[in-house]
Amino acid sequence: MISWLLVIILSYFFFSLAFLGDKMILSGAPKPALYTFYVGALSLLVVFFIPFIKFSIPNYQTMGWIIAEAIVYIAGLYAMFRALEKFEVSKVMTTIGATQPIFVFFLVWLFWGLENITGLEIFAFFLLLVGSIGISFEKNANKNRGYINITIIASILFSLDYIFQKLVFLDQPFLQGFVWMRLASFVVVLFLLFSKNLRKELFVKKENVVFDKKISTIFVCSQSAGGIANGLQGAAIFLAPTAFLPIINALRGIQYVFLFLLTLFISYAFPKILHEKNNRTVIIRKSISIIVIAVGLALAVLY
Length: 303
Fold this sequence. Notes:
Elements: H1 2-25, H2 32-41, H3 60-86, H4 89-112, H5 119-136, H6 145-169, H7 174-190, H8 196-203, H9 216-239, H10 245-250, H11 253-269, H12 280-302
Helix pairs in contact: 1-9, 1-11, 2-3, 2-7, 3-6, 3-7, 4-5, 4-6, 5-11, 5-12
């Protein structure tokens, strides 16, 4: 219990660092296909793990889940970047983070049933979900149909990614399963090269390349933090029983706790780098949400 809990908390800390980096460098609208291609292409870096693991070909069923995971992962990235192209990064990410635990809970029930989930776990999940929504709530969030549609699609795809990862890990050792899924992601993202517009952005319009010299350090640090976070999240999914998958996802509220504290510190200590408007009402609401998350986390630990 404690092992996967510590791993997922550490994962959400690195996710908060990656998200903070994205907020600092994404001053313009990202190009969905281009960003998805870069993130997917970076998956190939897992080949460096191959010499250190017992690498073998999974059975047909597991390979099917690996391919399915890669497809929903890449599709989820594309849907998320489509949302970021039209709407603010903070609103998009918090909406996805707040709705995803609900879909994960439903999918766990669909795949494995709720026999192994106790009333205390459901109550802990509820508190974590409420705290997550409270700390990520945006008063002026855009609620038009286009916004809701694209963020919900991204949330469902990332929720399926959770489930498919667990199905892979039920048959594969962690590193072997993780390497296979990321290699599959690299193969899937190559299909984006059939897009003529993407090929132009990659090979012709050099001014659109994401690695601008002024933001290269922040970008590399952000992507590194995101890579570590994804690896740790996969490890937590591998370690946790299936009944705890909704709680793992609902613990995303901890990411917003880290993000809130980091942005609050940077806003006051280094206002020229990042400035966030946090009035007294916002600070009180987020502080109450942190308490609710802490109680939900305590219940999960006590179980």
